[in-house]
Design goal:
With 126 residues, the protein is mostly helical. The protein has six helices and no strands.
């Protein structure tokens, strides 16, 4: 979901899908844009994503636990750029008074990724 699609959602649906109210989202965007202007420029490329899409991608990672690889593919950018920019978004928002909670399971509960991976091993000589 990109920002153009999210804008068309009702306030209730927006909060349900993104995790924050539209007004809070707009405040976060204002803070991020102001902070981005303060970052010194030494040439290089501009952001391929809008600040709104970058914030949505960060929320998708924090709320849905999708991998950066999948999110980056959805938004059409490189995974390493998304990781770097998402961390900047998190740090900037926390520094400016927003609280970002990451889900932590209750004590005693563990989540295990049990994906089977085939490994080719040499056959033993008898």
């Amino acid at each position: 979901m990109n920002y153009e699609t999210a804008q068309k959602l009702s306030d209730v649906r927006f909060k349900r899908l993104v995790g924050v109210k539209k007004s809070t989202f707009d405040e976060m965007i204002a803070v991020l844009k102001a902070e981005y202007l303060k970052v010194p420029r030494h040439g290089g490329r501009h952001l391929k994503l809008s600040m709104e899409d970058l914030l949505l991608a960060t929320f998708q990672y924090l709320r849905e636990y999708r991998t950066y690889e999948v999110i980056a593919l959805d938004f059409g950018i490189n995974e390493s750029n998304l990781i770097r920019k998402s961390r900047w978004v998190e740090e900037t928002l926390v520094k400016n008074g927003f609280t970002i909670k990451k889900y932590e399971p209750e004590e005693g509960i563990s989540i295990l990724d049990a994906t089977e991976i085939w490994i080719e091993r040499p056959k033993k000589n008898k």
